[in-house]
TrEMBL record:
Its main location: mitochondrion. It comes from Lophium mytilinum. Residues 10-28 have a biased composition (Pro residues). InterPro entries: Cyt_c_biogenesis_Cmc1-like (IPR013892). One of its GO terms (cellular component) is mitochondrial inner membrane. Belongs to the CMC family. Residues 1-34 are annotated as: Disordered. Required for mitochondrial cytochrome c oxidase (COX) assembly and respiration. It comes from the Eukaryota. This is COX assembly mitochondrial protein. Keywords: Chaperone, Disulfide bond, Membrane, Mitochondrion, Mitochondrion inner membrane.
């Protein structure tokens, strides 16, 4: 005869099957293609930085080799690939995305400063060459007015 065991006191009821939890979205803010590329570039840079020694070893081995680099530098290549696979994770990509978002304000400020400088340089250019807002010389407009007035 099979014996049944009663749950231990204080163990409570068994966990009821719950509804599957929805995963937290990794990309809460949709980015443009250029922004995604910037995040990817930052991600690749971070991975290459972590594997710099292995990349340097492989590059020094492969220097001045062509086809023979395939078998002559195999251990260095395998070490480099293993390092990159180890560090190329979703967590690293999320960290790169976070870094990109933290730099948004600095990039915006830099763009605004660059635009202000461009406007200032454009104004100086117009004053230096005596141009109006449309880029035409002010003297030419005066001569044109005099010519038109002289024809009347």
């Amino acid at each position: 005869m099979a014996t049944t065991t009663s749950p231990a006191p204080g163990a409570g009821p068994p966990n009821p099957p719950s509804a599957p939890k929805r995963p937290v979205p990794r990309n809460p803010i949709p980015l443009s293609a250029g922004q995604e590329q910037a995040v990817r570039d930052l991600y690749y840079k971070r991975v290459r930085t972590k594997c710099a020694d292995e990349i340097r070893d492989f590059a020094s081995c492969a220097l001045n080799r062509t086809i023979s680099a395939t078998w002559a530098c195999r251990p260095q290549r395998l070490a480099m690939n293993a390092c990159m696979v180890q560090h190329a994770t979703q967590e690293e990509q999320d960290a790169a995305r976070e870094d990109w978002f933290t730099g948004m304000d600095a990039r915006r400020k830099e763009r605004e400063e660059k635009e202000a400088k461009r406007i200032e340089q454009e104004k100086f250019h117009r004053e230096w060459w005596g141009l109006d807002e449309r880029g035409r010389k002010k003297l030419d407009e005066e001569r044109e007015r005099q010519r038109v007035a002289g024809e009347r």
